[in-house]
Amino acid sequence: MNSASTSTPGLTERLAAIDHAHLWHPFTPMRQWREQEPIIIERAEGFVLFDTNGKRYIDGYSSLWCNVHGHRVDVIDEAIRDQLDRVAHATMLGSSTVPAIRLAERLVKLVNRPGARTVLNKVFYSDAGATATELAFKMAAGFHHHNGRTDRDTFVGVRGAYHGDTTGAMSVGYDERMHKPFGSMLFRNAWAIAPDVCSVDEPSAGHQREWPSWDRARRERARDLALADLDRVLGEVGDRAIAVVIEPLMQGAGGIIEQPEGYLAGLAQRARAHRLPLIADEVAVGLCRTGAVLACEHEGVEPDILCLAKGLSGGYLPLAATLCTDMIAEAFEGELSEHRTLYHGHTFTGNPLACAAANASIDLLISDEISANARALSSQMRDSLREALGDHPHVGDVRLRGVLCGIRLVAGRGPWSAFDPDHRVGALVCAAARERGLMIRPLGDVLVLNPAPAMDDATAEEMLRIVCETVSGFDFSRFV
């Protein structure tokens, strides 16, 4: 049921007029945005958001994949209030702060397994996932440069990956739809194909009703094809390669592309064989979203450079961290005359309020066993989606690892055929879900479910019911 609004009459309309006049929203077609009444979030409780009209929405995408424990978590709220009584911000250029130091220690303990051969021992803070990856690219390039390998100029990545929207992040995670106008700004990259099971040949007629991502033979075929293509790319790039970059287990904004078992380990083995740093971008998949603290843990992969953001502060404040090994960091140390310093930084690097929130969030990650809850939630999602949508003629695939889930909508399932992208079917289905009280966003025609890893069973059950009822009740025939 809806909660009573605390707003004054007419507030929503006045705020909407100001929004339409002045605000430019990210990843939003603004002409169409100004033609609709916006949802204006006023407050939140647990895993639920409330707008200025008092309408209740389940936060089915964790406020863009960053909320971990829910909204208004007492422990995190108190940590921020306590830090406000001390200092809200102090620069890390030439000084340090207590929360930043404590967080660095926590992070090193959190991400390194006992007995690990590759230990991530140094922590550099920034403020978003894109800045975390930008820093990782500079660390890798500088590592080679300071070791006398100045001719390396190419990063090796996976086609369709997304690493952010700053220049370096666009370069390594290029998307033609989003980044084409900025092509002149980008640096050199080489991409191997993604291990996308939907790109593998259609299965035999007897298996056409099975979702591709749940078909073991297709998963293995996709893995082998992608690793073979990576071998080709590494052979072509040769000694010009700087690093191998990967979103472990699941490509996020590229369409929720799940990686088959063995792909991540195979990619890591090839990076080692070519003596290349492995950069793991765990901005979207890290911190329990896949059912482990790090996605890399599932296949025993130990990166040389690790990027964290989004859920690092529990989804409260902008904070990112790029961790690296001592070997990488030592390349930037030497006599002042050698000019090895990593000249990189941000005004709010290591902001004390954000670090205080992150310290409290990590304490909850450990004490509340969030990874176990994410695994249980994943099983709940798998069972519900299979039962309700397994035979749906317009659900072409379901990709699921932990709480990261992509439901691929298609015009037909035998053979598989896509909707005309101009119809924006995914966006229309998400709008229908909002009417039922669920906030989710599409990636093209992929519906993305990404609840907070700590979401309770009852809220998750309601979320899944709304998703299944929305898809089942939607009139897809208008677009076929």
Task: Outline the structure in words.
The protein has 480 residues and is an alpha/beta fold. It contains 15 helices and 19 strands. It has two domains: 11-69 and 370-479, Aspartate Aminotransferase, domain 1, CATH 3.90.1150.10; 80-367, Type I PLP-dependent aspartate aminotransferase-like (Major domain) (Aspartate Aminotransferase, domain 2), CATH 3.40.640. The chain has helices spanning 11-22, 30-33, 62-65, 74-84, 98-111, 129-146, 167-172, 176-179, 216-237, 263-273, 326-330, 352-367, 370-389, 425-435, 457-473, and strands at residues 41-45, 48-51, 56-59, 120-126, 154-158, 189-192, 241-246, 250-251, 257-258, 278-281, 305-308, 320-325, 395-401, 404-409, 412-413, 416-417, 438-439, 441-443, 446-449. The strands form five sheets. A seven-stranded mixed beta sheet has the order 4-12-11-10-7-5-6, with helices on both faces. Strand 15 (412-413) and strand 16 form a beta hairpin. The longest helix is centred in the middle third of the chain and has 22 residues, at 216-237. The radius of gyration is 23 Å and the shape is globular. The mean pLDDT is 94.
